[in-house]
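for the writeup, i need someone to sanity check this before i put it in the appendix. the sequnce is what the collaborator sent (i think, or maybe the updated version? ugh). structure was predicted straight from it, no edits. if anything looks off just tell me and ill rerun, i have time this weekend
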Amino acid sequence: MSYGVSAALQSAIYQALSADTVLTGLVGSAIYDAAPTGSVPALYVSLGPEDVADASDQTGHGARHDFTVSVVSDAAGFLTAKQVAAAISDVLVDASLSLSRGSLVGLYFVSAKARRVQDSDVRRIDLKFRARVEDS
């Protein structure tokens, strides 16, 4: 197994999201590697947790990265957050990302969970994706 591609994968995902005109039309530059501190935008995207497992085979080293991208909104209802979530999914599903290390074999949608954050008016959608990478 190799965890060596993790940073390259995260960078490529961030760059793809930040470069998408539909997504940036919805959230502007509010796409973060971590949830912002202090005053937060009313609507933002945050790259979240990642679980990685070995996916090596006889042809080489590889890994399966299960990661979360979150949409956080204080808008009434889920419509705006779902529009942002759809844009994220459109960018990432079956994306052909160029990595600075290794290569992306495939990128897939796994699941989503939309919920109201407890005791607040904040809505959150956690989108889970799976990436299969090879380390060259």
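Helices lie at 6-19, 21-27, 79-92. Strands lie at 31-32, 43-54, 61-73, 103-116, 123-135.
thx in advance!!
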